[in-house]
Design brief:
The protein contains twelve helices and no strands. It has one domain. Helix content is 74%, strand content 0%. It is mainly α. The protein starts with 8 loop residues before the first helix and ends in a 13-residue tail after the last helix.
Amino acid sequence: MVSTAPPTHDQQRPRQRRARWSWAWITLSSLAIAGYFVGQYAQGTLDYLAQRQVGLAASYGFRAWPIQAAFYLHIIFAGIALALGPWQFAIRLRTRRPEIHRGIGRAYLISIAVGSTAALVMSMFSSVGLNGFFGFGSLALLWGWTAWRGYRAVRQRDFADHQAWMIRSFALTYAAVTLRSWFGVLILAQIPFVHGDDPFATILREAYAPLPFLCWLPNIIIAELIIRRRGLPGLRITPTTP
């Protein structure tokens, strides 16, 4: 019988170094985007920002006040969730200061509860119509559901399942970053091929169209691969038998 020896300390170092760099990149990009889109809409009212074509202000600046309230709630609480999310995966914080880890987790889950509800309302008034409703609406529902499953797992003290669901939850939270990344890529990809009287408007419209799905579907696939690589519970199509 052939036995495999566990990896030595020297073999683990490159893996640990890559994990630190990955965490640092995710944390910095999350903080940057959270600060950017919260600050972007803190410069004035939606009407004022809509006149200057700032972000999504033109799509929601003329809506009734409950829709505008949902917009601001989503911006604020999604920003909080994005800024807090990476710190849940800081091993030293989780092992040395578990009370801080739990406090961050509670704030993260509350932020998602508010942010996902507001996002679902916003999806009904998306600038890309049904594509936005189904894409962003599905993201909002899954975002809230994965966070709730993570909360339920930790309440049942099933920590492996809790970790798996929180990885899925943050993969959906991180859609705020990947949306903007894909948007930039799709804009650059079209520049050589789009011509006409107003090519920039066409480029922006075509680049934004697939984002309601593209911003989160690859994330959740990558999250599931990470979960399986770490030996955590994967998604089950059918319930397990006792």
